Request: fold
Amino acid sequence: MTNSENLNGFDERREEFKLYGLTCELWSPGIMQKPDRHNEIEVNYFPEGAITYLFQDERVTIPKKRLAIFWALVPHQIVDHQGTTPYFVGTIPFALFLEWKFPVSFVDKILMGEVLLDASDEFSMYDEFLIQNWIKDINSNDPSEVILLEMRARLYRMALNNGSNLSTERSSLDSGAVNKVEKIAIYVARNYARPITVSDIGEAVGLHPDYANAIFKKAFGRTLSDYVIAERISYAQRKLLTTDKTITEIAYDSGFNSIGRFNAAFQKINQCTPRSFRKRYRY
Reply:
């Protein structure tokens, strides 16, 4: 497929939250020693083999010949892989993805942290050819706008395959509001472990708290307070599965100021206690 010298891979020294930008590359599968986080939508495609991510609270395997997409601001870490065949990795800037106005159900699943697989392999015979052209376009000195049209169209097709109603689009935000929403998401990702409030978030991005909450809910379908709690619980889930820290330590590390609040929030999201969660899912 390509010479090994042209392959990319995860840089363990990479700074957390550093952006990749609009990319499409061939990567060599390998175990990641730490999670990656970057505020782009990531697309994976495996001609052969497969990889398994630790993604929030579960292991998610992406099989061959099935387009996969997820929001890479959610910590993701390759913990297993089958075969050594190179695979395709694409990243789409978050603001650009929102501007493409995909169906609500498709966007919401991604922003809620799901890894979506194309429900059909009907187009797999074309995907490798299509993605190789994206790589050529991006690596050219004058990349064509065609790549953006093709990416958008392919993901629309995926949304349709996955049962989304293409007529149900959330009312769109203007470009300024999209940029603010992106800054809000990054701020929360960096600071959820501190005792931050909606007022703190609004001040950090230069918005009135009510307006910050309104545009965030318009884009994400949930309030800022709910999103901060979800980030904290997501962190706690990872630590319960991957460390021997006590539940009390994890609760405070996650940003909660009391065990009672942590347990209540954890129970609401997971329908079980932190102790039960660790016992059930740890491997």
